[in-house]
Amino acid sequence: RIMEAGLAQRLVQAGIRTLNGPQKAQAERFGVEIIEMRDWQPGMLLNLAGPLYLSLDMDALDPAFAPGVSHHEPGGFSTRQVIQIIQEIDVPLVGADIVELNPVRDPLGVTTAVAAKLLKEIVSKLLTS
Predict the structure, then answer these.
(1) What is the CATH number of the domain that holds 16?
(2) Residues 66, 129, 53, 43: is their CA dihedral positive or negative?
(3) Upstream peptide bond of 51 is cis (omega within 30 degrees of 0)
(4) Closest of 22, 121, 18 to residue 74, by C-alpha
(5) For a 10 Å CB count at each end of the chain, is N or C smaller?
(6) Would you give per-residue pLDDT tens digits along the chain (129 residues)?
(7) Domain for residue 7, yes or no?
(8) Which 3 state secondary structure label does DSSP give 32?
């Protein structure tokens, strides 16, 4: 919706594992840059410009690392990869959110612990930006 309203200059979605026809068409229509997981490489440069708002969708993580999400899709990011992405942000981070945490699907609380760790990394980045 942010692109429909013209509220962002650029939107990058990284770690996409399933992209159907209508989703692809909508992304193209609004100029959303898609980096599919199969194309992701460690250290990949995203050429980000600030100010940056980070929306972290917990579905981007592999279910082995985050089982408490709404949509399980194997082949996602590891916790370490997401931490590295956050730590490598080198432009001013002005806000963030974490979405798609579903504790009902994770009775052991693994995903909540991962989300808390990622939140800590994001807050650290916000405080040093």
Answers:
(1) 3.40.800.10
(2) negative
(3) yes
(4) 18
(5) N
(6) 777 777 788 899 999 999 999 999 989 998 899 999 999 998 887 888 889 999 999 999 999 999 999 999 999 999 999 999 999 999 999 999 999 999 999 999 999 999 999 999 999 999 998
(7) no
(8) coil
Q: How many CB atoms lie within 10 A of CB 110?
A: 15
CB of 27 closer than 8 Å to CB of 10: no
In a domain, 58, yes or no: yes
What is the residue range of 95's domain?
Answer: 12-128
Query: Token digits for 87?
Result: 């730590």
Instruction: Decide if 45 is inside a domain.
Output: yes
Pairing of strands 33-36, 52-57: unpaired
The domain total for the chain is 1
- Structure tokens belonging to residue 127: 């405080």
Q: Is 6 left (phi over 0), alpha (psi -120 to 50) or beta?
A: left
Q: What is the pTM of this model?
A: 0.90
Residue 20, in any domain of the structure? yes
